Amino acid sequence: MAGVRGRLAPYLMILPGGLWLAAFFLVPIVLMVSLSLQTGNLIDGFQQTLHWRNYTDGLSTYGDKFVRSLWYGLVATVACIVIAYPAAYWIAFRGGRAKSTYLFLLLLPYFVSFILRTVSWKLVLTDNGPILGPLRDHGVLPEGFHVLDTGVAVVSGLAYNFLPFMVLPIYVALERIDPRVVEAAYDLYASRAQAFLRVILPLSLPGVFAGVIMTFVPVSSDYVNAEVLGGPQNTMIGNVIQTEYFNNSAYPTASALSFALMAILLVGIFAYARTLGTQDVLEAAGR
Amino acid sequence: MTTHTEARVTLTKTPRRRRVPRRFRISGLHLYTLALIGWLVLPIAIMILFGFNDTRSKQNFQWQGFTLRWYRHLFDKGDLTAAVVNSLTIALLSTLITTVIGTFAGLALGRYRFRGKGSTNLVLFMAISCPEIVMGASLLSMFVTFNLPRGYLTILLAHVMFSIAFVAVTVRARVVGLDPAVEEAAQDLGAGPWTRFRLVTLPMIMPGVLAGALLAFVLSIDDFVITNFTSGATVTFPLWIYGSTRTGTPPQVNVMGTLIFAVGVLIAVVSARRSARARR
């Protein structure tokens, strides 16, 4: 009896969570794929017609939005690496006893709601706002200077919002490096640049990979920053999906676009993981 | 004569300028880190500041003087208060449910080998890395297909869904690092499965469980995208702010944000202090 119960134990423990994820994560995605091939409208209902044109039409109509989303995602992710790495490096190697304090300070934005953070960032970028207003009045900025409603504003908002996702994995990877390895490099007459480029940087790359996975997906599928900071000219694919669902009730098209977005991002991630770090990346991302 | 020697003494002394003590020197990277923190904190500082702004118009982006008015009239906007209450209760309920379910899942994954473990791990990874908009959109597709009314309940279902994986993974990481001999010893001493779990396993994985619970709470109270797709007519704090961005965000939002920020920071600092003391 105890043996049977012992063997059943893991299944019983995994059951509630597994069922919940099956019912509200896997089944909805299957239903969304099914909906993406249907035709019809909200009033007459939708019928399954295996209408593949939802995909081809959607991709050809909104191809530019897909490209822009991936481009913004790429730029914001690279910006996050460049911005996050030096700080993560300093905290990991020179932070001393204040390490956790510095990390905590870097995570402070996370104590403010994502939307509110974005709205506050808009305030920073507003032409007559508390930052740019005085700067222009004192002649620091040229008269026609303008950030809001540009692609730069969107990318800056994305980088601002998702930076901690990049800082943390890089910090963890750097922090794990055995200081004796670095000392060994110096003992072997490596210059500071050589020690960094040939020892520290390669050892920290798994953290960068994990950071890329954790930032690129949410950044390129985000639509809040594009809507709040970008204005109508800089919309991303997320904005299209949202509009198709809520304003147009074009559920099949919206489903096709969402599934295409997920497919592109997931295939991209798996390809990326396979070429650059396979198991490590997946494990690091799971952590 | 004396002044001359004095001058010579000082002369010989000045070239050996005392070096600035190490702890007062600041390196370029240190400065950079501080600047980065400044950048990250700037919008928060503006949020807090503009909760004190004596604005007369609907827009709240020009400083017009200090006031405590918005703190006194914090609950004047009834629908905003209701939205904050919704956010808090949903976050609490979803944290409770998720922590229980997710902890057991994490225990199973960290401790046992069983059929389907690999695919469960894959589903967890997918749930963590899936774009939020896709989760929201697919849930909406399901609710549309089954004609389910959207509201408080569907938000709660969705929040538990997207938090489970995070709790499970956090607990799993803790379980993997544990020594199974401790539990075996408890069993040898006659402890039944429930006693063993309550008195041995649970206290050992508690840090992981608490971290997972905290994560679940933060994820829930902060979520906008998935909530937007599953909310129907129910409004949470992030949804309310989003709705207000078109007409002008009232200062009460800044005050609410400031208070939530302060409580969050307080909890984090206190719990960090506690765990630091426990480690000593």
From TrEMBL, chain A:
Identification of the protein by name: Spermidine/putrescine transport system permease protein
The family this protein is said to belong to: Belongs to the binding-protein-dependent transport system permease family. CysTW subfamily.
Organism: Actinomadura luteofluorescens
BP GO terms, sorted: transmembrane transport
Sorted UniProt keywords: Cell membrane, Membrane, Transmembrane, Transmembrane helix, Transport
GO cellular component assignments: plasma membrane
Metal-binding found in the keyword field: no
Subcellular localization(s) per the UniProt record: Cell membrane
Family matches, as Gene3D superfamilies: MetI-like
Top-rank lineage group of the source organism: Bacteria
TrEMBL record, chain B:
UniProt superkingdom: Bacteria
CDD domains: TM_PBP2
Keyword list, A-Z: Cell membrane, Membrane, Transmembrane, Transmembrane helix, Transport
A biological-process GO annotation: transmembrane transport
InterPro entries in alphabetical order: Bact_Polyamine_Transport, MetI-like, MetI-like_sf
Pfam families membership: BPD_transp_1 (PF00528)
Regions that span the bilayer: 26-52, 88-110, 122-146, 152-171, 199-221, 253-272
GO CC list: plasma membrane
Domain ABC transmembrane type-1, chain residue ranges per copy: 84-271
SUPFAM superfamilies in alphabetical order: MetI-like
Similarity field: Belongs to the binding-protein-dependent transport system permease family. CysTW subfamily.
Protein name as it appears in the record: Spermidine/putrescine transport system permease protein
Species assigned in the record: Actinomadura luteofluorescens
